[in-house]
Every structure is written in structure tokens, then in C-alpha cells.
Amino acid sequence: MIEYLKESTFVINDVISDAWDVLKKRYFAIAGICFLLFVVSNVSGILAMYLNSISIFLSVFMALLFLVLYFGIQLALFKHIFQVLDRKQDDIRWRDSIPTLKEMIYFFACVISILLGAFITYLLISVVFFPLIYLISVEVMVQIVYFITFVLAFCMFLRIAFFPFFILDKGVKPFKAIRLSLATTRGNFIRIVLLLAFFALFGSLYLYFSYRGYAVISSGLSMVNSFVIVPLSSVAFIIAYRKMVRDYRGDADPSIMENII
């Protein structure tokens, strides 16, 4: 296990190093899209509080609109990074980074499917642990169900989180994108966790120093997170995706059950 972790660490180092080289080529473009995501997220939150006091229907409509806009920009970021990886500098076009209607529909179809799957998992776990109410209190049983559901959902999400890349890069349909994400991440779970932990560390440091009241340090970390870590992580996960696809030797149309574990 220790040797595997060492090997995984070296792989993560390669991914981050490659991501940094790619980011330097188009830093202002990639960071600019990330900044646009930041603006949309904060503006939507402010408008939600304001519109909620005026009309609940208008608030819901604007929330859905900003949701589509936010994820549309997120997909545009991914498509732009794919261009940087696959094209020469002079051949990169902004218009080619705009997600198509089909790609947006496929993306949201995957999101809805994942949410439904998480809900069904919660119901199944609740049924399995229901007999515990005869041994422990209902409150404790509910907390156990929440915890197990969260752990399973988190692990499964890391496995299927690469589905947008298959939609944008390969043009596959929603359910196939989820199956391919499950298949290609099989055996790479620890590497994905380590990569996520590397970027999450900076966010944790920001929260820690912010909680401790070190305003200067927390402000500096916030700037680093916004303008370095977020753009770098976006590139890194796409490079990790490309490496996993390159090494994948499974079926072109894998099944879910064979790749869950």
C-alpha cells in the first residue's frame, strides 16, 4: 500500500507539473473564465436574497437562469482547456469554447441522473438500517444513514465526476459518459483523492487563517485560491482525465455494475 501511495504521489506530481505548463500558455484566458464563474456565483447569491423578498417565483426563475449560466461557463472553461491541449496557439477560438445546446442537455441529464441515484441510494440505505430503531434511537439511526450515504455518495461522485469531459471531448451521450467515467477511474481512486486533497489543502488553509482572524494571510490565500489554485485545478483534472483515458484498456461501452468497485 505504501509503495502504491508513493507511485500515486509521483503521478500526481506529473499531473500538476503538466497542468502548470498548460496554464502558463493561456493563463489570462483560463483565469478570466474562472473569475467570471466567481462573479456569476456571487451576483446570483446577492440577487437571490433581494428577489426572495419581492417574488418567490421570480427568485426561482433567476436561480435556474444563473444555474444554467454558471454551468454553461464551467463547460466553456473545460472546452477552452481542451483547445489549449489539442490546438496550436493561433488555432484557439473563443467561439469554439461555447458549449452547444446538445452538450448542455447532456450535462444536465447526467446531473439529474446522479441526483436521482443519490436519492435512491439514501432510500435503500434507510431501508437496510431501519431495523436499528429497535436497538438505538431514531435520531442516532438517522445520523448513521446520513453519514453512510454521504461517504458512499462522495466516493461515487469522485468516480463519475469526469462525465463532462467525456461529453465535451468524445461527444458521448449522458449515461455512457457516466459509465465511461466509472470505468476509467477504476483503479485510480486514490490518485484522484490525492489530487483533490492537494487543491483542497489551500482552501483549508484559507478557512483556518480566516477563522483564526489572520486577515492579511487569509486575504492572500483567497487571492491565491481564486487566481492560481482554481485555474490550475481545472487544468489538472482534465490532464488527469486524458491520462486515464490513454491508459484505459476496458470496453468501449462498459457496464455500470462491472465498474462500481
From TrEMBL:
Keywords attached to this entry: Membrane, Transmembrane, Transmembrane helix
Residue ranges crossing the lipid bilayer per the database entry: 27-50, 56-78, 105-138, 144-168, 189-209, 215-241
Name assigned to this protein: Glycerophosphoryl diester phosphodiesterase family protein
